[in-house]
Amino acid sequence: MKNFLVKIIKLTLFTIFVLVLSLFFVPDKVSETSILAALKDKNELLGKTPSPKIILVGGSNVSFGMDSKKLEKRYRMPVVNTGLHGGLGMEFMLNHIKPYVQKGDVLILMPEYEYFYTDNFYGEMELVSVIFDVEPESKKIISTEQWSHLLKYLPVYSAKKIKNYASSLFQKSADVIDIYHRNSFNSYGDACLHWNLPNQSYLPAPALKGNEKVNAKSIQFLKEFKLYVKNKGAGLLIFPPVIDKTSFDNQKIIIEKIAEELKNNDLTFFTKPSAYRYEDSLFFNSYYHLNKKGVDKRTEQLIRDLD
Amino acid sequence: MLFNSYEFSLFLPVVFILYWFVFNKTIQLQNIFLLAAGYIFYGWWDWRFLFLITFSTLFDFTIGLQLEKATGETKRKWLFVASCIVNIGFLAFFKYFNFFIDNFIAAFAAIGYHIPAISLKVILPVGISFYTFQSLSYTIDIYRRKMKPVTNLISFAAFISFFPQLVAGPIERAFNLLPQFSKARIFDKTQAIIGMRQILWGLFKKIVIADTLSVYVEQIFTSYSVLPGSTLALGAVYFAVQIYCDFSGYSSIAIGTAKLFGFTLMQNFNYPYFSTNVSEFWRKWHISLTSWFRDYVYIPMGGSKESLPKTIFNTLFVFSLSGFWHGANWTFIIWGLLNGLYLIPNLLYHKKSPKTISPEINISVIGKMIITFALITFTWIFFRSANVSQAFQYINGLFSKSLFQYPIQHGMAITIPLIAILFAVEWLRKYGFKVAEPQRSPVYLRWSIYLILIISCFAFFKQNQTFIYFQF
Question: Could you tell me the pTM of the whole model?
Answer without folding.
Answer: 0.83
